[in-house]
Amino acid sequence: MQETMIDIAVIGAGITGLVCARQLQQAGYQVVVLEKSRGLGGRVATRRLEGTWADHGTRYLEPQGKWTEQLIQSLSDRGIVHLWTKQLYQYAEGELSPQEPRPCYVAKDGITAIAKELGAGLTIQRQQRVIAITPNAGHWSLTFEGSGVDPLPPLQVRAVVVAIPTPQALMLLEPLSQEGLPEELLTTLRSVEFDPCFSAIATYAPNRVAELENLPWRGVLFRDDADLSWVGLESSKQRTTQQSVVVVQSSAQFATKYLEATDLQPIGQQLLTRAAETLLPWLDAPTVLQVHRWRYALTRTPLSTGCLATTNPLPLVCGGDWCSSNNLESALKSGIATAHEMNQRLDQRSLPILTFA
Ligand SMILES: Cc1cc2nc3c(=O)[nH]c(=O)nc-3n(C[C@H](O)[C@H](O)[C@H](O)COP(=O)(O)OP(=O)(O)OC[C@H]3O[C@@H](n4cnc5c(N)ncnc54)[C@H](O)[C@@H]3O)c2cc1C
Question: What pTM, to 2 d.p., does this model score?
Answer without folding.
Answer: 0.98
